[in-house]
Automatic annotation (TrEMBL):
This is SDR family oxidoreductase. The keyword Oxidoreductase applies. It comes from Scleromatobacter humisilvae. SUPFAM superfamilies: NAD(P)-binding Rossmann-fold domains. One of its GO terms (molecular function) is oxidoreductase activity. Keywords: Oxidoreductase. Coiled coil: none annotated. Pfam families: adh_short. The lineage of its organism: Bacteria, Pseudomonadati, Pseudomonadota, Betaproteobacteria, Burkholderiales.
Amino acid sequence: MTGRLQGKVVVVTGASRGLGYRVCESFRDEGAQVGLLARESNELTAAVAALGPSAFALPADVSDPSAVRRAFAAVESRGKGLHVLVNNAAVGCPQPIAEADDALLQREIGVNLLGPIYCMREAARLMRHTGGDIVNVSSESVRAPYPFLAVYAATKSALETLSEGLRAELRSVGIRVSVLRSGRLAESGFNRDWSPQVRQRHREQAQIQGFYAASGEPISPRVAADMIVELVCMPRAAHGSLIELRPA
């Protein structure tokens, strides 16, 4: 706890659990005020309570542009600006493309790609006079898409391309756009909503094709969270455009 971000305001999406919650912890420990943006739930309420008085809830579905606007309007109304946005929210809906469900496809693309776009649009507006940092969380799957998760990998690949474009677009107003490309994380909760049948099919194919062996052992989410903080705390003269975090 060095207080490097004392008084700064941070918004983290997908913040009620997993990596998002650990990111909130890491920013709080550096003195930041942290807005937890996630769908309204008992989990979100409990996460804010656990983080203490420096945390505040921003209940919203990132795939809903109106909800995102309301959430960032709430941030603006606090009168303390916005200094950091971490786009962490993501869903993986494993399904063979020949069996792909319309609603699941729309949900996956809505949360993983449109969600960050909506959030970055609002964040850029709030940061345009003061500068700031946007960190987009990507996945090792952009290099090696897992079986039944090709759409998920495609959304992350698109997010990386978007980040590079926005880096050029926003640098003149002092907004840095970075990507953390993460390997498998322990206790991420990524697949907790999958049906047992889908989970089994996915695991069998990933195991047979060597994806788990190539990925290595899962990384602690706190390691990834601390890396995001370090990206933000980097001197303004520098910029970490893409950091890939993998097991040793």
